[in-house]
Every structure is written in structure tokens, then in C-alpha cells.
Design brief:
- With 574 residues, this protein is an alpha+beta fold.
- The chain folds into five domains: 3-100, no CATH class; 102-301, HUPs (Rossmann fold); 305-363, no CATH class; 376-505, no CATH class; 511-574, no CATH class.
- The chain has 18 helices and 21 strands.
- The protein has helices at residues 31-36, 100-129, 144-156, 174-189, 203-210, 219-237, 284-293, 300-303, 319-328, 330-344, 350-357, 396-399, 442-457, 463-467, 500-505, 524-533, 544-551, 555-567, and strands at 3-7, 12-16, 26-29, 54-57, 60-63, 66-72, 81-84, 135-140, 163-167, 193-197, 244-247, 264-266, 274-276, 376-381, 384-390, 405-406, 413-417, 420-428, 432-437, 473-476, 479-482.
- The two termini are 34 Å apart.
Amino acid sequence: MFDFIFDPDTNGIVLQESEKPLRREIRPVYCHELDMLGLKNRWRYSSDDSAPLMWAINSFYFYKGRKVMKTQGGSCHSAPVVTILEDPEPAGVLLQMCDIAGMSARNRPLVDRLQALSVEFARKVYADYKDRADLFYVAFSGGKDSIATLDIVQRALPHNAFKVVFGDTQMEFPDTYKLIDTVEASCRAAGIDFIRAKSEQAPADTWSVFGPPSEVRRWCCSVHKTTPQVLTLRQITGKPNFTGVALCGVRHAESVRRSTYKPVTTSAKHNGQIAAHPIIDWSSAEVYLYIYAYNLPMNDAYKKGNRRAGCLVCPMAGASQDYIRDMSYPDAVRPFRDVISDMYSQHYAGAELDHYITGGWKYRRGGRDLPLDLGYAEYTKNGIQHIIVSGPKTPWAEWIKTIGILQNDVSPYKIFFRGKVFAFEIEETKQGYKVTSAEPNRFFLKYLKHVFRRAACCIGCHECEADCHQGCISMHNGHIKISDNCRHCAECHKADDGCLHYKSIAKTKVKDAACCKCGSVVDYNTIGLNKRLIGRNTRQFMCLHCLAEFFGTSESALQHKIDEFRDDGCPLFK
């Protein structure tokens, strides 16, 4: 909502009203981060972490408004390169800590306005949906944005009118769990229900069967975050198709993709779910100033230089952030790094293996380089669809209920699918079975493949169960049960290729990217720029020339952005 300027008097920042505020994401820098960057022997500063010493915007560090340092590169095994642009103080002079009280006093009028507007927004959302929703809840992550959002909501709504739901991925920072304990205790004291939702499967197990998550195979978000929350809220409401209003700390300034979000949206993934964003127009400066002004708890992960309070090892994290996380929590990070090393060491060694360990794992599109057995193969020959399943994990006869009604119980099978009867055959083999179908209907064959991919690959991650809004799928102790009341709506088939596990480890062919506008080759860094500017999940890419035309800018300006993102350690660039 507001812009900011640096305040040399307090070594802080001051909000200012502006018609077109610059969306600069700023963060405080504490002593621990300077220690990790190797500055203890160069600059003199206190080890007191009650207040920041500097502020950072992207890879640049500011002291009393002066740009004094820049970092570049880094990886989980190597520190970013530090370039001193100017010593913040003369040699031997102690760096001044930010005067939080003084900074807060100067910002209080505008911070209070932010609060009033956001409280009013939350109250309006409650009034609009209280007669239609089964529950309201704050989607709490332990990050700065959810801290501010929770404070807004608890001021706006009666404390018995909403709950706080923490989606525990079991991969959070140790500091996050400390904060969660603190917030849970304060919620209990204030009469606010605090709920923890987590998968019944441990990350050590899921990483070993799914393979490490990647930018385009982020199965972890569904398995360890979204799905457990949906199933937990179903238990609370007693309804498989409950309507929930999630009050989230999403902000426009966080990313290009989130810059398009509306203040209130309906979920594209789970029908009937509403997401409301009370601080959607806030900048990071406003979030931090709000936390300081109202003396709210802050996750100590930020004091160690982490820009986000997310998972310990994340494919979306920049290379420099990998270093900060590994230095901050070496014991917690190590098991995940070990999985990456163990998997890729079976195909690679030396420099190639190091490439994957230090970041190459983030870019995998399938299981081509992973030592994981799919137990599934498919091909078409002479117009006949062939599917081979080896060592099936779950019974196909249950999964087939999700697409239609079997008309008989012996091969060749007939199934009533979308108003017509289709046929397929199953032949038993020593390892499993072989499925064939001569049906020309591609729509039917798509869902038939989904059925047998699940039979071959399902490990009970519960994604399909969460996607079924009728409550017709249940998974207990590895046993899958599809109710005879299934409506064959195909909502449970929304996962790519019908199964998260299959999609994560299926062998994929690498194709050259071509510009969707002119057909010219799109290089690696330009693909990364497309993802940063348009969206991480975009499948069509533009070359630099067409991208410049699309955004009304110059190719040189876009090249500068590539350099900036690369220097900031973004894994999409090299």
C-alpha cells in the first residue's frame, strides 16, 4: 500500500504515501546472517539479535540507507560471494542496531491505517460468508505473513468464530516449530482453536518412493500440506464436501504469479473452498513494521537470513538460501541431502553427481535418473493399447469403480463408461498382469490408464481421497476402498496422469523448448525468465525478443533481469 525510505536516524525504514509505490521486498538483517557470511572479522557488531543491523533488498544490503554489500551465487555447500561496496562504519566502530521503538513510533500512523483496513476486510468476509461456510480458519505457516494475518483476524472476528490450522509438512525449520508452540499456547489462552494437520507418512519415506520433489514435480505440497489439511477439516466439520473460508497471508508482492490474485478467490483445486487475503496489498516492509509495532512473535529463521519460513529443503529456494538453510539447520537438513545423494549416486559420480546434489535435483521432470521401479509400462501397437503392470500395489478392481460400472467379473471385461459400454482384457502374468483394449475412444483410454497407473503405483498418499468431494474414497493401512456410491465425476483423476506417484517417477523424454510465438529456440535462462515473469507452471515459453514485445520492454532490460535473478541465486538461471 505504501512505499518506504531508509531512516538513518533509527537505522530503520519509514513508510510513505505514494501514488505508485515501488514493490520492493525488503527484509531485516540480523547478526547471525552476517556471521554466516563471514563478516565477523571485518566489521564490529553486537551479537544481540533483539534488533536488526541492516536491511536487504534482493542481494543488496543497506546500512542507514547506504548500499554497503552485495552477495552473489552460493549453493548448499558453498557460501555466496560477498562484495563489500562500502564499509558501514569506520574500522573498529560498532555498527548501530535498529532503534525498533523509534522506528515503530515514526510508522505508527500508517501501520494503524493498514491494520484498520485489513480488519475491516476480514469482518466483511466474515459477514459475507458466515451463513454459507462451515468454518473459517487462518491458514498458518509460522511465517511473518501468517503472523500478521492471525493478528488481524483475531482482532476482527470473535475468537470462537474461527480456527487456526497449521499444515505441518514435517519438514519445517526447527525455529518454526518453536514459534508454533508459542502461538498455539497464546491461541489456547485466547480461546482460539489451534489445529495441526500432517500426513500419516513421514517425509523420509515419501522422498524415498516419490524421489526428491522438483520445480515441476512438487508432489510434496499435495502430500504433506494440502491433502492433510483437507482431510483434517473434513473430520472437524463431519462433511466431505465442506465449505471452508481460509484467511491466508498471501501478498501480491511475493511473486509475479501471486500479483494476479484477487482479494477473495475460490479454490481451483478443491471445490467450494474460499481463500481470503487480508494483507494481499501489503509489502514485506509493512509486514515487518506491523510485527515490530505490535510486538508480535517473529520466527527466528528470519534472523538467520532465511527469506521465507518454508521447508528445510525446497526445490523453489535459491542457491544462496540453500546455503543459509544448511548452515542454520545442518542436522535437520542432512537426511534430505542424503536421499538426494543416494539416489543420484547410482547413476552419476564426480562433478556430475555434485551438480545434482548442489541443485540439479530441482530441475528433474520425471524419474529418468532415479533408481525407482515404476512397475508400469504402456504402449500402442496396431491400434491396440497395451498396459503392463508388475507387482501391483493396490487392486485395479477398486480403482475401476472411479470411472464406471463393470458389467461382468471375468475377462474380457465390459464397463459402462459415460453412457457407453467399452471393453478391455486382462491376462495374468508371473509378475502381475497385462491389459489390452482395442477401443478407439481416447477419452476412455486416458482414464483406463489412470486406473492401472494407480493400481501399479498407489502408496496411499491420500491425494485422490482429498479430491473426492463425495467421500467415496477411503485409504487405511494401505487398503483402498471405493464406495459403490461413486458418481464417476473424475474429480479424483485431477492429478497429472492420474497419480502423483506415477507422475513423479515416470521416465520422461527431454524436449527442446521452442518459442510459442515465433518457433525459435528458447535457451535455459530465457525459460527461467518466462517462469519468473509469467508463472512457474507455464508450459509455453517465448524467446527473449517475443517476451520483450509481450511486456513492452527491451531485450537488454530482460537480459538485465536474468542477470539480477542469477546473481540473487535463483535456481532457474545458470
